[in-house]
Design brief:
This protein is an all-alpha fold. It has 2 domains: 16-182, Orthogonal Bundle (Peroxidase, domain 1), CATH 1.10.520.10; 189-353, Peroxidase, domain 2. It contains 16 helices and 4 strands. The structure holds protoporphyrin IX containing FE.
């Protein structure tokens, strides 16, 4: 039977209430899609839409509400959820291995150097706490992690994507692999492409995924070599446009000042109870963000296009970001996404979905942790 994708007859679609037409169309397309293709390197075959519909029908709503509430009191914590999911999924798949604390005999991914400044663990714990109260020992941390990332994206204006659930949690933390497999901000285009390529992402998909850098903040230490001592030359990166160089230097002097976000909205009891008010630790250094940096039109979406336009102007903050304009193929996608918002939102939704189902563990493998930082 043929169906009009704008008028899906699935109750699942209605329940998700995607915020925009384009999101509804994407949702419908995914739901109507036949079996995942074999060259899709995701193992998402045994995940299901609304896996918890009977065992924990409120699960997805709890995630959504907690993320939205947190956005009111700690907006800067929200992008970290997206990064957390990326760093989990990129290393041995989306299995919440990143959330495990070290125990005797097992080092933790948390302590691997690429994860040094990762935040958001406390947010996931708080969401898990609420979900455990509603349905004990039912919803995996791995599902909560990718659901929270999706809600975080929606909150900051990103596209919706219909996540399947049913992931299970790993019993191992892959500290050694995290140390070597997470991409560094100092790598060049070929290294970026081979890192993402190894996980099944082509050039177009890689360029779209990096659009996640539309939100959040970046500590000076990840790019100050470009401002003061590029490749040991004692000079700035010659590719940096001079006004941009000055702007970045004004934000990142050689002597960092501490900064901490101010709260402006009264927190709700559940957020207060979860102790999620203050950032978990003081921000060690000044930070820089793409938001407000690039040329942003008076109207129009803030998620996506300004990031790619910054790159076209040579205003990439990270060396690795700017690398995306470095080849014909990737550069053409940067240009496309800088101007075609609908295309970007569609591609980004698809690649986030792919990222969120990389090498997942499903029953009977893995487990459902009770406390996300400890093996059950
Ligand atoms: C070549 C690939 C990538 C590199 C080298 C990279 C590197 C970085 C670095 C160095 C930061 C700054 C962290 C800090 O200062 O606290 C950052 C932030 C961030 N990254 Fe990436 N990243 C990459 C890809 C991605 C992808 C694929 C996603 C998600 C799909 C992502 C999401 C984020 C987010 C949301 C932030 C902001 C975090 C916050 O504000 O707390 N990144 N990234």
């Amino acid at each position: 039977t043929t169906m009009d994708p704008k008028r899906p007859n699935s109750t699942q679609i209605v329940r998700f209430k995607p915020s925009r037409d384009i999101d509804a169309i994407i949702t419908a397309r995914f739901l109507l899609r036949s079996e995942p293709s074999m060259d899709d390197r995701t193992d998402g075959g045994s995940l299901e839409y609304d896996y918890y519909r009977e065992s924990c029908p409120r699960a997805e709503r709890i995630v959504r509400e907690m993320v939205q509430e947190l956005y009111q009191v700690r907006p800067r914590g929200i992008p970290s959820l997206l990064r957390l999911a990326f760093h989990d999924c990129f290393v041995e798949g989306c299995d919440a291995s990143i959330l495990l604390d070290p125990i005797n005999g097992m080092a933790s991914e948390k302590d691997a150097s690429p994860n040094e400044l990762l935040k958001g663990y406390d947010i996931i714990e708080a969401i898990k706490f609420e979900i455990e109260r509603a349905c004990p020992r039912t919803v995996s941390c791995a599902d909560i992690l990718v659901l929270a990332a999706r809600e975080a994206l929606l909150t900051v204006g990103g596209p919706f994507y219909p996540l399947q659930t049913g992931r299970r949690d790993s019993m191992i933390s892959y500290a050694e692999l995290a140390e070597h497999q997470l991409p560094s901000p100092f790598i060049d285009l070929s290294e970026i492409l081979s890192s993402f390529g190894a996980r099944g992402f082509n050039e177009r998909e890689t360029v779209s995924l990096l659009g996640a850098h539309s939100v959040g903040s970046i500590h000076c230490k990840f790019f100050e070599d470009r401002l003061y001592n590029f490749s040991g030359t004692n000079r700035p990166d010659p590719s940096l446009e001079s006004r941009f160089l000055n702007l970045m230097r004004s934000r990142c002097s050689k002597f960092h000042s501490a900064s901490s976000p101010k709260l402006s909205v009264a927190p709700s009891p559940s957020v207060r109870a979860a102790g999620l008010l203050a950032p978990p630790m003081a921000e060690p250094e000044t930070v820089m963000s793409y938001e407000g940096l690039g040329p942003r039109p008076a109207e129009g979406p803030a998620f996506g296009a300004p990031y790619y336009r910054s790159l076209l102007e040579g205003r990439g903050i990270l060396f690795s970001d700017q690398q995306l304009t470095g080849s014909e193929e990737t550069g053409s996608w940067v240009r496309a996404y800088a101007w075609d918002t609908a295309l970007f939102r569609k591609d980004f939704a698809e690649t986030m979905l792919k990222l969120s189902s990389l090498q997942v563990l499903t029953a009977p493998n893995g487990q459902v942790r009770v406390n996300c930082s400890k093996i059950a």
